[in-house]
Amino acid sequence: MKAVRLLTQILVCALTVLVTAACDLYAGAPVEGRFERTLSVTGPVELDVRTGSGGIRIESGPVNTVHVVARIRASDWFDDDAARRVKDIEEHPPITQEGQAIRIGPTGADDRYQHVSIGYEITVPESTVVRSSSGSGGQTIRHVRGSISATTGSGGIRIDDTQADVRVTAGSGGIRLTGVRGPVVARAGSGGIIVSLADSAGFELDATAGSGGIATSAHLTSTATNSRHRVHGIVRGGGPRLELSTGSGGILVE
Fold first, then answer.
1. Residue ranges of the domains in the chain?
2. DSSP string for residues in 6-71
3. Highest mean pLDDT, choosing among 20-24, 32-36, 219-223
């Protein structure tokens, strides 16, 4: 009986290896590409960037340009047309500009983008207003002074050195905000939230953690609620409101 079980296990393992090898052989290597564009601007920019799969990185730069570098990765699983689609995206990237409003990435129902991942690195003027969305992929936004609205279905979000209001949502992934000077609304479905304020500024804290604790290194001078899963109070005389919530994960405010 032991010999029969052993033989069965060997056959199952062998079949698994053969199926995996056959799938890898059929799938082949992914097709990769890139495009790069520089857009001229003359005033405050409104940037809307979206990607279904792929990361987003935004940093401040020269006041008169928006520079975009995109990396494309397409799967040729059951698709012998991936190379043509990647080349077509390189030649006709999903970028539109109307005055100071720039949209990057909305693809609608365009078949070219089926099974395609595009990651973006974007340099914008410091005063830019940012709206960013990624279905699967992390985001980093640094040194942008305009308001920021960022969402991701799966992936972390990090925002550094901001002055205006910030709204972030991560379905699965942590949120890290540093150098915050304005009001914040941050929600994480699964993942922790860390917020570091600039210059030890005062603030109002309203934090809720479904599964995980809440901690702050500052003393709450006026407290409406203070428990393991809910904290609402004033720090250093008050200031911008920090509205933080996580379904699973802790919250730390420094």
1. 29-131, 156-254
2. HHHHHHHHHHHHHHHHHHHHHH-SPEEEEEEEEEE--S--EEEEEEEES-EEEEEE-TTEEEEEEE
3. 32-36
